[in-house]
Amino acid sequence: MSAAKDGSWFTEISSLWPGTGLALKVDEVLFKGRSDFQDVAVVKTQAFGTVLILDGAIQCTDRDEFSYQEMIAHLPACALPAPPKKALVVGGGDGGVLRELSRHASLEEIHIAEIDGMVIDVSKKHFPQMAAGYTDPRVKVLVHVCDGIKFVQDAAEGTYDLIVVDSSDPVGPAEVLFQKPFFDAMHRALKPGGIVCTQAESLWYHLEIIKSLAAMCAEVFQGGAVQYAFTTIPTYPSGQIGFMICTKAGGSAPLDAREPRQPLPVTPEGRDYPPLRYYNHDVHRAAFVLPTFAKEALGPSLTY
Amino acid sequence: MSAAKDGSWFTEISSLWPGTGLALKVDEVLFKGRSDFQDVAVVKTQAFGTVLILDGAIQCTDRDEFSYQEMIAHLPACALPAPPKKALVVGGGDGGVLRELSRHASLEEIHIAEIDGMVIDVSKKHFPQMAAGYTDPRVKVLVHVCDGIKFVQDAAEGTYDLIVVDSSDPVGPAEVLFQKPFFDAMHRALKPGGIVCTQAESLWYHLEIIKSLAAMCAEVFQGGAVQYAFTTIPTYPSGQIGFMICTKAGGSAPLDAREPRQPLPVTPEGRDYPPLRYYNHDVHRAAFVLPTFAKEALGPSLTY
């Protein structure tokens, strides 16, 4: 159960970032529960507004969620040579990735496979700016409260142009989302030339995890491309989070996702969305530029 | 006095980032003192090795200092059209910026004006990898334990190709280093076409401070250029820190510091320096790319 209490400081402690943790002053605990999969807490903080905490780890906050949601959605969507028509979100129960994907006018269907219905429920109640993504009347949003890996394995081969994996860390329910069977299934479910973008931890704290992930992706996406990008976000460990972006073979050459090929995403008419606040085409290109220590570590597995 | 104790958690609390703070597990307190200017503490941490704390704010750590030191030194030095010959560091008592500047073979003199001798002393004892910058036999390092603002005001007009201001936050002894009289003095002390790079806080936490700073710089560096860049670093608030980079008028057009014009810095022969771990020319260009919310806020004061 989350240690957060009204008027106290909550510190995010985890074996994934030993000896360090972000501390947030909690004004009020809005929700505490235990789902079939994890501890779920929603707290009001002085610095970041409302915060969603799963198994003691900060998932998103009112103040900085836009950086993560915009980047994990628009980096892959804008890199595609043709406007995507069919997308899948695995995880992402808060709705933020749905909101960002729905800014892509070409999308005809967006499916979401979130394992934990409680995450969807608390988001609809406490994070209206993210849960807004569930209510887009233009795109067909199919919500599946189910195991993401099973959903992807059951999908017909070549179904999706785009898969976004908005998962928590590789401990607990999301562990399988960092393993080869899931990536094999995603590769199969993608159309030729399709792209996948997965939450892929911090270069500063998890370089060894990311190295293994990149090597596994290079095996799965043979003939395609494997790339890594990151965004800054104060409430994730180390203040940044990265994305593994893999493209299935399909065109004449592996897709280089560093180059944006689609126009800036726009808010669909009549939607009460915040404007784009992080993503732009220059940010897209810059997100793939790695500091020397990371470039040296990941380079051997990356396509570009 | 710093609250850090052996075996306890230290949380970095400040009015500059209310309601949030990085927590570090402290294995051992190595030094605690009060200088004429501030509280000085050195602690051994589980996650980041040895950490320097001034007035309760983390200044640098063994594990991630290279990101800050490399970027604050090489962004301005590599942007210059001609190799710099004479540089000044204001603050930077730990020696890390000296270490990085000494990788520029063209430099004939590097001056440093650090107000607090205790910072220099504890660095020489507890941070040998940074304090190594004090012992370069090839460049003439003049160490002045003195008030940086007075030192710059007393310098002859047109003395420096490059000034790096490695200051703490704009509360306490470093407050004057964010104000116009200091920037006027730096402008005067620079050669025509010379460049200054100052520690300029976090886009996520201090956008209003940075906006005011940029507007003031645009006033001081008329005919020259004002630009903003940032680097990622886990132990600074929000996980990043930025730099205000200003160029004095001198050439035919204001210098665009986004473009690196000098070769990659190299370690001088015989020096026991760590290799470059963050900076490369692609990172240089990418560091100036701002997320949309920051671009919109700072754009009116920036030259490019």
From TrEMBL, chains A, B:
Keyword Phosphoprotein: no
Residue span(s) of domain PABS: 7-248
Pathway annotation from the record: Amine and polyamine biosynthesis; spermidine biosynthesis; spermidine from putrescine: step 1/1
Entry keywords, A to Z: Polyamine biosynthesis, Transferase
EC number: 2.5.1.16
UniProt-recorded Gene Ontology molecular function terms: spermidine synthase activity
Pfam families: Spermine_synt_N, Spermine_synth
One cellular component term from this protein's GO annotations in UniProt: cytosol
PANTHER family (alphabetical): SPERMIDINE SYNTHASE, SPERMIDINE/SPERMINE SYNTHASE
Family: Belongs to the spermidine/spermine synthase family.
Protein name listed in UniProt: spermidine synthase
Organism: Chlorella variabilis
Organism classification: Eukaryota, Viridiplantae, Chlorophyta, core chlorophytes, Trebouxiophyceae
